[in-house]
Amino acid sequence: MKKILVTGGSTFVSKYVAQYFVNSGYEVYVLNRNTKPQVTGVKLIEADRHNLGNILKDIHFDIVADITAYNAEDIIDLYDALASFDQYIMISSSAVYPEYGAQPFLEDSEKAPNKFWGAYGTDKIAAEEALLERVPDAYILRPPYLYGPMNNVYREAFVFDCALADRKFYLPKDGDMNLQFFHVKDMCQLMEVIIKDKPSEHVYNVGNKETISVKDWVTACYKVIGKTPTFVNVYDDIEQRNYFSFYNYEYYLDVTKQSKIYPNTIPLEEGLKESADWYLQNKDQVKKKPFIEYIDANLV
What we know:
This protein has 9 helices and 13 strands. The protein is of the alpha/beta class. It folds into 2 domains: about 5-145 and about 180-205, Rossmann fold (3-Layer(aba) Sandwich), CATH 3.40.50.720; about 155-180 and about 210-250 and about 265-300, UDP-galactose 4-epimerase, domain 1, CATH 3.90.25.
């Protein structure tokens, strides 16, 4: 039974990863501060990753799955606290690519500040660099928008709420801005391929091959609720994030390298159905933003 250390383990991606590997028969350790309920079956290491002392020095991990590395200090403090491990997989982000770069972004495209992501993107760049300085054969995964069960970010859940309330949907402009998604289960299954096969490439853009317009995405979200949206197009010069789940920023990752080792991803509508089923039972776990309040006060 392989030992895997999952940083986090109590919110969205890290929680799903912990649950997935428990279900797959791994011995799963989670590193967090124990402020939220733990996944059944994990072994908790209750600590702050910046104050680990010798708590990890007696454990050899087959895999370190670093889901919560957001800056260089996160990497350095965890690495210094580890005794030994075989593989290190870090979840980075597509935010490392600048908004002005040529698209689709390739793994060797320029990494630079992105005006939409700000410090989040530059800190991820620093985290990647700190990791590769210490673990040259580490694996780095750069997803676009992640979705699926356990998503506590108010993205698809916002559209589900609009559908459940039979609201008209206020759509940015013509709704032709494209988004790229990746199901959190696809992320886990790709990680398992990497663990088992140890591919020669070590940095991967990850995501669905195809993008989808925001209009079609909203339509798909309504459909899994059993509804059809009526759209109101918003052409005014209003900050899009006041009333919609995503920035006014369209980008596209080239996932050719991923497709060579993990060719088939979950169809978006199927993944959204899983998201909706989870949300209907766990509405209290999503951090809601006042999109509907803003719409009612400013757009209706």
